[in-house]
């Protein structure tokens, strides 16, 4: 969205500590409205999905010791884009004004006479400590807390940190960016009166599925962190409140915590599965293998719509079938009233629910969500002599039209959508498989299996998938996977996304 003024506006947006759900509503709105998004290493990539597809995305790094662009260059870039009349979202990990150098960027914008707003974010001190089960204040432990940099400006001639005041005057201390200087931090605090047995926690990648927490004391924490191989990004929490983690830890106790699970579903449909896996603690890795697109030839569909009064039944086998059929129905000048005389069948609850949003209730919803179950449900209904319209995917299984025709019905199949190979080279997937950073791959249809298999090097697929758990939504999908050489470990009993998640949970509990 270009601003009306010759100079644009800059939003200094706090992206939160890692969990994309912790960004503010206003922060999401700023990303969505921006012409340019300038983002840091610690800003969750998931947040970028809120941006306008036409927005310019600029990564400026800010990874410890490896800055893609120096701060001076970032400042100049922000001013340059704003002076082009663009709306700029400067997306920063945590909160812009808590060790985020947002104050420096604001000063540069003021000097350049560029309008700006600050959108606060959840700082890592608050987010990571809460997700580690450590309240920074507690009436039985402390009423004060201090946020301290663990990495002062190296150009300063002397430290501005009052170690004696921190050691003896503040109950809870939180150090940012201090892992490399942890030995010095602990030594300074103990030398200035903080007891050596003061509890300490170091939280790496706080609020994300990669979170790892190590606890110890001022005397032991250097060795504890070294043994656990904890590196940046991490925060250090010091004080007796750390002891509360023993009973308050909740995030890392979730049943799928730390499991790295690939979601192969189409990007537009993956959100529900990703949300459920993430809520259970998994790192859901989006790798859409299919794209769902409308049919390239609407002629048969349009003919069926014009003759809609001749049909007795309308059968849907997917949510996509409902959406694309009704969109075309409306586009041709009709609405749900044109279907008032027709009975409907839906292959499962998700499809039936989507049909309800279009104003129709399903007369048939089978117990098991596959074509064979729809046929069985129809066997209890008189279909001989009826005419059935079946809007669905191109190259769908033939079970349903064949069996219904055998029962004496006239079945008209019309293609309303097609599934295509997703525009994804698979390079990132192969890299992660090579690195051993994937635990499980989920499949929600035969097409996701087929296209996933195409992403793997033909002669190396077996090696790359060795040790990877494969989870399938149902027997048809499982059969396709096995036919392509993928061993299926988990199969949902209920052929739905919740059923798949439950099967993954059951497998996790059995392993434990």
Overall helicity: 25-40%
- Strand line-up across the major sheet: 3-2-4-1-5
Tell me the name of the CATH class of the largest domain: Alpha Beta
Tell me the total number of β-strands. Answer: 20
The largest sheet is: 5 strands, parallel
Average pLDDT rating: 90
Task: Label the CATH architecture of the largest domain.
Answer: 3-Layer(aba) Sandwich
Instruction: Determine the CATH topology of the largest domain.
Output: Rossmann fold
Structural class: alpha/beta
**Radius of gyration, whole Å:** 28 Å
Strand content: 15-25%
Contiguous uncertain segments of 5+ residues: none
Counted up, domains total: 4
Shape: elongated
Question: What is the straight-line distance between the termini?
Answer: 51 Å
Number of helices: 19
Domain Tetrapyrrole methylase: 9-221
Enzyme class: transferase
Pfam family, one: HEM4
InterPro entries: 4pyrrol_Mease, 4pyrrol_Methylase_sf, 4pyrrol_syn_uPrphyn_synt_sf, 4pyrrol_synth_uPrphyn_synth, 4pyrrole_Mease_sub1, 4pyrrole_Mease_sub2, CobA/CysG_C, Siro_Cobalamin_biosynth
């Amino acid at each position: 969205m270009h601003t009306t003024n010759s100079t644009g506006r800059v939003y200094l947006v706090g992206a939160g500590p890692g969990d994309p759900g912790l960004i503010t509503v206003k922060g999401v709105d700023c990303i969505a409205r921006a012409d340019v998004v300038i983002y840091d290493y610690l800003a969750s990539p998931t947040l970028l999905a809120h941006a306008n597809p036409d927005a310019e995305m600029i990564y400026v790094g800010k990874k410890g010791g490896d800055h893609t662009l120096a701060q001076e260059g970032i400042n100049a870039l922000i001013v340059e884009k704003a002076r082009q009349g663009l709306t700029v979202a400067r997306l920063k990990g945590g909160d812009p004004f808590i060790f985020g150098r947002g104050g420096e960027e604001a000063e540069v914008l003021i000097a350049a006479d560029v309008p700006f707003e600050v959108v606060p974010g959840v700082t890592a001190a608050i987010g990571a400590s809460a997700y580690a089960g450590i309240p920074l204040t507690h009436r039985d432990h402390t009423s004060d807390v201090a946020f301290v940099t663990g990495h002062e400006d190296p150009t300063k001639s002397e430290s501005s940190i009052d170690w004696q005041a921190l050691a003896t005057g503040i109950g809870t201390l939180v150090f940012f960016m201090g892992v490399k200087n942890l030995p010095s931090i602990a030594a300074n605090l103990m030398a200035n009166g903080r007891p050596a047995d003061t509890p300490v926690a170091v939280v790496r990648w706080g609020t994300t599925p990669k979170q790892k927490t190590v606890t110890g004391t001022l005397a032991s924490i250097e060795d504890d962190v070294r043994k656990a191989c904890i590196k940046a990004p991490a925060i250090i929490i010091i004080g007796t409140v750390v002891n509360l983690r023993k009973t308050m830890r909740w995030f890392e106790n979730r049943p799928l915590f730390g499991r790295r699970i690939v979601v192969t579903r189409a990007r537009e449909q993956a959100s529900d599965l990703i949300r459920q896996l993430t809520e259970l603690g998994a790192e859901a890795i989006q790798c859409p293998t299919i794209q769902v697109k409308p049919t390239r030839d609407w002629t048969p569909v349009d003919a069926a719509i014009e003759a809609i009064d001749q049909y007795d039944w309308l059968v849907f086998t997917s949510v996509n079938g409902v959406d694309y059929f009704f969109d075309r129905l409306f586009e041709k000048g009709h609405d749900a009233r044109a279907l008032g005389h027709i009975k409907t069948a839906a292959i499962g609850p998700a499809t039936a629910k989507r049909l309800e949003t279009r104003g129709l209730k399903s007369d048939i919803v089978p117990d098991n969500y596959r074509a064979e179950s729809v046929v069985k449900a129809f066997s209890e209904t008189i279909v001989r002599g009826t005419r059935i319209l079946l809007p669905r995917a191109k190259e769908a299984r033939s079970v349903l039209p064949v069996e219904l025709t055998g029962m004496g019905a006239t079945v008209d199949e019309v293609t309303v959508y097609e599934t295509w190979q997703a525009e994804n080279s698979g390079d990132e997937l192969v890299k992660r498989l090579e690195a051993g950073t994937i635990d499980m791959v989920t499949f929600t249809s035969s097409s996701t299996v087929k296209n996933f298999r195409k992403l793997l090097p033909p002669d190396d697929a077996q090696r790359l998938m060795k040790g990877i758990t494969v989870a399938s939504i149902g027997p048809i999908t499982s059969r396709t996977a096995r036919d392509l050489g993928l061993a299926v470990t988990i199969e949902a009993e209920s052929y739905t996304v919740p059923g798949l998640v439950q099967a993954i949970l059951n497998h996790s509990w059995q392993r434990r």
